[in-house]
Amino acid sequence: MKILVLNAGSSSIKYSLFAMADHSTLLSGLIERIGEPLALHRYQLLNQEVSRSEQVIADHQHALNVLFETLSSSGLINHADLSCIGHRVVHGGELFQQPVRIDAEVIRQIAGMVPLAPLHNPANLLGIEATMQLMANTPQVAVFDTAFHQSLPDYAYRYPLPESLYQHQGVRRYGFHGTSHRYVAKQAAEFLGKPLQQLNLISLHLGNGASVTAIEKGQSIDTSMGMTPLEGLMMGTRCGDIDPALHFYLSRSLGLPLDAIETLLNKESGCKGVCGENDMRTIHSMADAGDARAKLALQMYAYRIKKYIGAYFAVLGKVDALVFTGGIGENDHWLRQQACNNLSGLGICVDEIQNKQPARPCGAIHADDSKVKVLVINTQEELEIAIQAQSCLSNLRI
Ligand code: ADP
């Protein structure tokens, strides 16, 4: 069985083809700058060199034609071989707690969620609609970033705001990165040799976006992102938790319009706001060269992670393992050490040597006497989407 996973953005499509027998990646690629004068297509076939080409790609339909030509000419697959296409969809609201087979009604429902995710759902829909036209006979499944967090209890997902905003406008916390948190939780269970249903975990997905999830007996019971992916941890360019009254100050005292405030908090804040850079590797280089703002950004980033670890420890009562994942979580030993520093009172002790081991699919970095295990796990969100799409086709609940 082969499953193609598509992650459509407004001007890009990321894709991966998986052989489900052994979960191996047969082909992965990215088409970006769709609709611009020259689009860039990069892809990698099995373990071969990365191929690159530039060409005019007018829209998503055109991009998918290019993608399916690449698939056919790769010799890996023809259209009839493809069992299913799994689509990443960012926001599933309260409607989607599971992956779902896509039909006209589901497309309508995803479109209904656009006000909740105006930047993401329209782009995801472009990919879905174009693929439905091109591959009408291939089953297609939508997998939602929010679905894993639908198990949050109401006292965790509600904001202390008037109830009507929740009832009529859907104003509540939804959480994101659900496919990643679910995937690493399953991997952690396998690594620890225990059923996921018996484990309490704190998973930390630290990439350009970042979120923490408290997982009790395999289920998400709290998570740091909220109604949008702006809440929670400090991120590359997003502010994370701030005083909501700041909006009034920015508006009244500085005269900033709403759009400018939105851009400021999403694209000009976080690490970038504090030190001018958002890529963690660059920030480390700057800090190593003595840049005080970069040092402050690193300290703030680690401090805010530590606060969430403490909070979710209190929420869970007992924690079996912390799991670090995402580009930063998997590679940045300094941040892992800082985030866990002085947490021996909670039973968290990181082993300095293990922590500095190069990234691997799954590794343990805790000291022998640490009560809480500390794991570093390579997340594979696209593979998780393929696994969930397969379960959906077999009518299995995930
Ligand atoms: P995205 O959220 O876009 O998927 P990633 O999970 O790839 O992002 O994470 C990107 C972040 O990971 C960047 O800030 C990058 O600097 C950081 N990163 C990647 N490799 C390393 C490394 N070796 N050390 C520190 N940070 C790293």
Notes on the protein architecture:
- The protein is an alpha/beta fold and about 400 residues long.
- The chain has two domains: about 1-145, 2-Layer Sandwich (Nucleotidyltransferase, domain 5); about 195-380, ATPase, nucleotide binding domain (Nucleotidyltransferase, domain 5), CATH 3.30.420.
- The protein is built from 15 helices and 14 strands.
- The strands form two sheets. An eight-stranded mixed sheet has the order 5-4-3-2-1-6-8-7, with helices on both faces. The chain has a six-stranded mixed sheet with strand order 11-10-9-12-14-13, sandwiched between helices.
- α1 packs across α3, α6 (about 180-190) crosses α15 and α10 crosses α11 (about 290-315).
- The radius of gyration is 21 Å and the shape is globular.
- The two termini are about 20 Å apart.
- Adenosine-5'-diphosphate (ADP) binds near residues 209 and 236.
- The site of adenosine-5'-diphosphate has 12 residues, from α10 and α12.
